[in-house]
């Protein structure tokens, strides 16, 4: 047992080791999330009911992001540490956590109650294109889900204690239990309660998430209690520190709310198609971008705080090169194998072949911005580490606004310019399928995200990296290898078509589609690895070194729930 516990308390030797460990835990959670989506695709499929379910998330998610991030792990931990005596829990630290717990709980419950009352008005804004019947369903589901931000918010608060005492294994279990709750909702509660069973599953998942963190916090000597003599100066300091980051997260969520509102006017099932593809592209983002950004943050903050500018640049460039190294191959792989990926993960039951083609097309568009999304998580944290929260806040606001504007513009152009519509449908192989207007939503999101990345990169170079090469060498090496990966995978798909093609018996089975994608992907990855080896790629060498030094013994600071 002691050996198991030591795995999660040893210090990391490098950002690569920490990122690989965090990525491994994230992968487990993402696999469960994919199983969750497969269950929904199988039992419900893209439909007005599933659209209502996904739309119902928007208000609870906005509440969670807007309030829970005010007491996030990265903000709370330094304040708690300052009030502790080494590893010993002091009354001052307990009092501080009790104050935060009391104010946070009161604020979250108050906002949830207000949202419960005005939900009909909010839903008319979130899903204006729904019929009154499905708007009523969104109201019901949203009201049930309002328990979720309260529970997840408290769990996030307790998670600071879990992290503080280095109980990383326990912390990593929480997202897994959250997805388990939703899966229980799909498999067992949906047949009994209908669509409301899905919302109950979300609440169950949030309760399990909270329970794990609460038990871990209690075992560490922190059992938060309501405080009646609150030190509001400490609370105000936490809120002021968190506010810019909170607003940045809220801007992106508001952009998603507008996208969902627009999708409610499109063909039924469009919101489901958008969310399925968004969730799929989030897998590499969470495993690569978030993992490296979170792993790099402590080193960035420490080096900048110590005035070691060159060390700060070194950590930033190292993490950026790693994100480029992993993300570019994913982009090419997801674009080439999009149909196989979607069909294997989601293709069963109520999820038709037309649904597969639409989600695959959306996934291809989202995939183009995977590198940009991963880099944004790192570059924005670089500013946070340097104590500059204003720059990423302004960039996030402008780019969220651009996503909203582009969503309107692209849908209008797609509907009114025949040449553009024909070009997009032909390029993504969705000719003759109804509801292709939904493709404009991921296109707007990706375009706005790439703009966000470009602006971050410009200002990072101006503020920290003037007259220095940043990621140029790695970018072109990885781009060349990724092109080879895409080409070899595409040729392998065609070569395997006589055996696994959609017109053959094997091609219509799960195993046939799975092996066609797997073999093609492996061939592409091997070819890309050979190219990188011949180019003596530094990131490939670092990866092999991290694997040899047992990355699973690293200690990492996991991301807050609102970041996932």
TrEMBL record:
The keyword Ubl conjugation does not apply. It comes from the Bacteria. GO terms for cellular component: plasma membrane. The chain crosses the membrane at residues 62-84, 96-118, 138-161, 168-189, 195-216, 246-266, 278-301, 322-346, 358-381, 393-414, 438-458, 470-493, 513-535. Keywords: Cell membrane, Cell shape, Cell wall biogenesis/degradation, Membrane, Peptidoglycan synthesis, Transmembrane, Transmembrane helix, Transport. This is Lipid II flippase. One of its GO terms (biological process) is regulation of cell shape. Involved in peptidoglycan biosynthesis. Transports lipid-linked peptidoglycan precursors from the inner to the outer leaflet of the cytoplasmic membrane. It is a multi-pass membrane protein. Pfam families: MurJ. It comes from Candidatus Nomurabacteria bacterium GW2011_GWB1_43_7. The keyword Transmembrane applies. It is found in: Cell membrane. Belongs to the MurJ/MviN family. GO terms for molecular function: lipid-linked peptidoglycan transporter activity. The lineage of its organism: Bacteria, Candidatus Nomuraibacteriota.
